[in-house]
């Protein structure tokens, strides 16, 4: 069920994105780029531009006058930055994999190596980079029980980590398992890789009522263990860097997700879990549970930037049903979540918008950046939030496009 719902969300996100055009490219890079933005320019296909900037952009960015953007067929699959390069979840043609984009002398991005992966974005197309010469990725077409290793410099697969013994032991206790895979999220902390393990039937539906997370040692490239949360939750989302997996200033790891559990008996349930600094087990004394903690039924896509024990997220003001009823409504708000009390406070000076980007809020230079797209159909906006003064500022106006991700190189 979850696999099917994830692909519905991709289609909904592309369908909700608006597009048009205008003029001024003063923000785009002319010297050494330090920031980059993914911008959808064609709402019918979800295609658009990867654009470098030589400084933190402010004011208006007119898509019609951008001259140094790299055209991408699938711009809704935002990537990460590492050592000045971008690593994306698809190549320029939209094929699934790990695409490296490097900066040329004239400050445009160019394709600089590609590793093909399977097309299962929602679960199986995930990666993480731990050094300039080592990274990890999932590809269930190569192995359903082994995490792959690659070299980000040469963009070549270099090996794999076999986890079959432990995964098969769990599988033996389940019924109707046709496939297993890694994905949802893949993140490194203190020499350990964390990634979710999925167990699915022949139709791709999840068949478990628990959440399994594999922990892999990056020094020995061996599986340490698989930890279990006693409820099924889809953590993260299959596109790398959608901002649902985050660290706080104390190195605590927060695992949220776009979907949570859409098949919960009580209705769609959205969660955030935590693994504390220095620990490799779930913090069973703490979680955010939207059904339990949010009094007005707010839900969907819980996860975002964490600053000073607060999480900054975008969320619907009314509950979204398992049939996605309400997902097209002008009801998508910005919230501050107190991680101690779990109280959700609407940020009143950021306007309501529509849900279009699959990404949660970014953290740029220690400030949460939140996307707003509303009935001003020609424009989309980035608002920053000052966590000390609790005030917001409209930092960037995108004319003629719809932003999906904003990165510091």
Describe what you observe in this structure:
The chain has 409 residues and is mostly beta strands. Strand 13 (179-189) and strand 14 form a beta hairpin. The protein has a five-stranded mixed sheet with strand order 3-28-27-26-25, with no helix packed on it. It has a four-stranded antiparallel sheet with strand order 4-2-1-29, with no helix packed on it. It has a four-stranded antiparallel sheet with strand order 5-6-7-8, with no helix packed on it. It has four helices and 29 strands. Helices cover 8% and strands 42% of the residues. It starts with a helix and ends with a strand. It has helices spanning 2-16, 121-124, 164-171, 290-293, and strands spanning 35-42, 47-53, 59-62, 70-72, 80-82, 85-90, 96-103, 109-116, 127-131, 134-137, 146-151, 156-162, 179-189, 192-200, 211-217, 222-229, 245-247, 253-255, 271-275, 288-289, 305-307, 310-316, 332-338, 344-346, 362-364, 367-372, 379-386, 391-399, 402-408. Mean pLDDT is 87; it is low at 6-12 and 17-26.
What is the overall shape? globular
Question: Strand percentage, roughly?
Answer: 35-45%
Per DSSP E runs of 2 or more residues, the count of β-strands stands at 29
Distance between the termini: 37 Å
Q: What is the compact description of this entry?
A:
With 409 residues, this protein is mainly beta.
Topology readout:
Layout: H1 2-16, E1 35-42, E2 47-53, E3 59-62, E4 70-72, E5 80-82, E6 85-90, E7 96-103, E8 109-116, H2 121-124, E9 127-131, E10 134-137, E11 146-151, E12 156-162, H3 164-171, E13 179-189, E14 192-200, E15 211-217, E16 222-229, E17 245-247, E18 253-255, E19 271-275, E20 288-289, H4 290-293, E21 305-307, E22 310-316, E23 332-338, E24 344-346, E25 362-364, E26 367-372, E27 379-386, E28 391-399, E29 402-408
Parallel strand pairs: 3-28
Antiparallel strand pairs: 1-2, 1-29, 2-4, 5-6, 6-7, 7-8, 9-10, 10-11, 11-12, 13-14, 14-15, 15-16, 17-18, 18-19, 19-20, 21-22, 22-23, 23-24, 25-26, 26-27, 27-28
